[in-house]
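Researcher: I'm comparing several assemblies side by side, and this is the next one on my list. It has 826 residues spread over two chains. Same procedure as the others: predict the full complex and return the structure.
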Amino acid sequence: MKLIVKIGLALALVISFTACGNSEKDKEKDLRLDDYGSQPKKEKVETDNTSQDSGDPLANKGIGPVKSVDLPESIDSEMANQGAVIFKNMCSACHKMDKKFVGPQLAGVTERRSPEWIMNMILNPEQMIKEDPIAKRLLIESNMAVMANQGIKEDEARALVEYFRQYDEQN
Amino acid sequence: MKNIFKIAVLGVLGLFIQSCGNGGSSDQKSGAITGNAAERVYVAPGEHDEYYAFLSGGYSGNLTVYGLPSGRMLKEIPVFSQFPTNGYGYSEETVPMLNTSFGFVPWGDAHHPDISQTNGELDGRWVFINENNTPRIARISLETFETEEIIEIPHSAGNHSSSFVTENTEYVVAGTRFSVPYPQRDMPIDEMKGNFKGPLTFIAVGDDGRMKIDFQLKMPGFNYDLSHPGRGDSHGWFFFTTYNTEEAHTMQEVNASQNDKDFIAAVNWKKIQEYVQNGGGEEIDAEYAHNVFDHSTQTATSTMENKVLTVDPREVEGAVFFMPTPKSPHGCDVDPSGEYIVGNGKLSTDLTIHSFSKMITAIENEDYEGDAYGIPILNFESTLAGTVKEGGLGPLHTEFDGKGNAYTTFFISSEVVKWKLGTWEVLDRQPSYYSVGHNMIPGGNSRKPFGKYMISMNKITKDRYLPTGPELEHSAQLYDISGEKMELLLDFPTHGEPHYAAGIPADKIKSKSQKIYRLDENEHEYAATSESETKMVRDGNEVHVYMTTVRSHFSPDNLEGIKVGDKVFFHVTNLEQDFDVPHGFAMIGANTSELLIMPGQTKTITWEPKKEGVWPFYCTDFCSALHQEMQGYVRVSSQNSNVPLKWTLDDEEIN
């Protein structure tokens, strides 16, 4: 019986949490999304030093199959064009270059994140949003909308990075 | 009269035995359950079962997938019936699957699943299943676990001795249980005798699985009850049990049980195949639907065929013989070696086993005891290999373990009996609860059975589970047959009425099970494979909405310009490409069903708004933490309004 009550409470909590997210239209009255990120409880869960979201974000390579990427000086425009197509088909439902949509705005992403981090976020989102400190924060900022695994291959993720680089160079 | 009396005695005995089981102590109810039975059927959380079992859903019209030994139901695959759970038979793409020469038939009576074979062994490519009521055969892919094809069987009725496959899946066979005028015509019913026919249809299966009726054998108007293919030496033959060789047209309960023996029809299909390849047979008019689901367009098409090739069995020398078999045989089962053909005389206590090699000798010697409509009847003694005496009451079906043993179900005495091939001695018997119909050993009707487990599918459930009112689901039971004695391990409820089942080791198919539909292979006519392709298109009073879903929004999610009287087609593409991220689509007031759209899929449902207003639609599958937010609105204006079509997401027009 006790257990049932607990489950009930947990459910109620979840529902009320979801309901909070639901009434976002009137932004002035709402909690700022960042407020969730600064809840002390969530910070305290982190006991592992490596998962602290601090230091130079560009030094963070993320968690996943991509350990090291050598970026050439110049943009490979053919690869970038391929990346643009993949972006349109696989990413644009949630990401826009020029605005925050479901996920973060992607303009400037190559200046904020390492190429390895970007690729690991694309290739291994389940583990990233659970373990990578930046990805965890972004999940909260994105209103708990999880990064979807779109079954993208490593060379396709690399092409996406090239597309982002090209965008950032041109804008 | 004598027969009536016998049936009555059997019936009374049956009732008596059933009530014994029913009123017994709890010890009796669980049978000889050993102490560690729970352990042996326990599959720990996250672990997988050792076998897949595909159980027919009987009058549910569908096929259910179970794991063994746990008895957990994993899935219901819609085949012959509409399925609002995922929109099968409601969505525009799948409505053609249920088309027949009688029009749209939303329901079916599914009976005997059989897995495709190569060299007489299960190959795990497809499972076939027959529909008894409006004769059809379906083929289900074991990569997608979806119905890919349904072919109607013309000139047949009561499609029961079906859908069994030959040992290289050359043919899937569909027999006729209720013989009928051939072709159908208006005639007095009491002139049945000699004028009805029981066609046996041989459907060729291509390498890609595609089915095509090769020929139809115009057999005498008996009832062809069940069948199985030869294997090994008997490959090239097919065996069908018959009853009602009396050709009674009324009160068959009595009148179809007058003859002491009916027949097992032995059909040399290789001879007939050769005959038709050489131009034999006669093409006659027919009307039957052939429905194919195309995975690239994700859409089914229904084609009406109008010819079928018919073969008179008397025209093909040495192709068809009758083997007399006592007491209205039901099951017709062939052992793994292909030598023994077991006739389960359902109004008997004995089993009759014919020998294939003796049959060949008898044919060579023209050892006939007469003929039926010109088809030779072989001498009973000449084909008889042996008899299992006093096995029980009312034998129905037999399966094999590959170790020289056979397992027969006895409906009236409600038990499963293990006996030895060759010596015909009964080795063990275990009660079933209650009144078992079919049994199934994975691969148990192939050259290579996997003789570890057997399930029985029982016709009466009664007190086995918590009562749920007068209507109950049927019950199945799992036995461990690896030892000398069968051990009952588990009861599990099924869905509908499982007739036959087919089982296969999980590792033969699980790695091939598809996880998603690839977006880049989606050739659906109305797919929008990215949000930029979403739009609304008006064509008269029809409005096509090209819509996408992703966690957790629709695009577009605000639609305007729809009018009362429009017919709106929602073509919804799921843009996800991850395993097990479906989205649902439900529209208030839709007169069909919802849709469940798997990653990369496009499905279409129609909606005919009847009232002005602003109407919500939403995702029915809990897809993410923001699932509750996954909804949109459609503005419906009056019939003569001038509100233009407008589709937006985040208040921006999509282009």
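Model: For your comparison table: The CA atoms of residues 398 and 408 of chain B lie 4 Å apart.
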